[in-house]
């Protein structure tokens, strides 16, 4: 599925984000940046040691990446040039700023993309796996935050935003919103 929003194509794809050829794919990382399960493990395995080495450097200088923030590395052997690592909130039943933090993941990833002239960025469904964010709540935050960013940044160079969704339930929740 694909729509046009403010001159930007926003598309949904059922698939594996490590196979996507974008300028940058986004990783749902953890704050240590040392890799983990889910999409994080898949990206580190497919991208090779370059990603891990650059993450170690970032973690050493900044102490890691808190929830809501984003950092960037090369894509190593992935088809995409860069990986933007952002850390979603762990969902504990709301009331812990989860929605704001999740929204910040998308805003900070897109801001970082714009600072590197990245035109095509592809996101996974941040926080809805191991971090337990209900996808029915996370999907509207993801889609609406991306749209709000594009509305409030008319000079953004981002021409294509993808959501690469790993299973049918996740896809259908994003489809409802988009
Ligand atoms: P988090 O810890 O932020 O919840 P997860 O990686 O556990 O991150 O899950 C986030 C989403 O990414 C889930 O919908 C999960 O099914 C999905 N996912 C896992 N592997 C991949 C992959 N290779 N490509 C795209 N999405 C993936």
Average pLDDT metric? 97
Written as H for each helix and E for each strand, in order along the chain, the element string is: EEEHHEEHEHEH
Termini, distance in Å?
9 Å
Q: CATH top level? A: Alpha Beta
Number of strands: 7
| Number of alpha- plus pi-helical segments | 5
Which bin fits the share of residues in helices?
25-40%
Largest sheet features = 7 strands, mixed
> β content, as a range?
15-25%
List keywords for this structure.
alpha/beta, Leucine Aminopeptidase, subunit E, domain 1, seven-stranded mixed sheet, 5 helices, globular
Could you explain how this protein is built, in words?
By secondary structure, this protein is α/β, with parallel strands linked by helices. The protein contains five helices and seven strands. It has a seven-stranded mixed sheet, sandwiched between helices. Strand 1 and strand 2 form a beta hairpin. The N and C termini lie close together (9 Å). Bound molecules: adenosine-5'-diphosphate.
Element layout with pairings:
Layout: E1 2-5, E2 8-14, E3 24-29, H1 38-47, H2 49-62, E4 70-74, E5 82-87, H3 98-115, E6 120-123, H4 135-152, E7 160-165, H5 168-177
Parallel strand pairs: 2-7, 3-5, 3-6, 6-7
Antiparallel strand pairs: 1-2, 4-5
Helix pairs in contact: 3-4, 4-5
Summary, kept brief:
The mean pLDDT is 97. The protein has five helices and seven strands, in the order E-E-E-H-H-E-E-H-E-H-E-H.
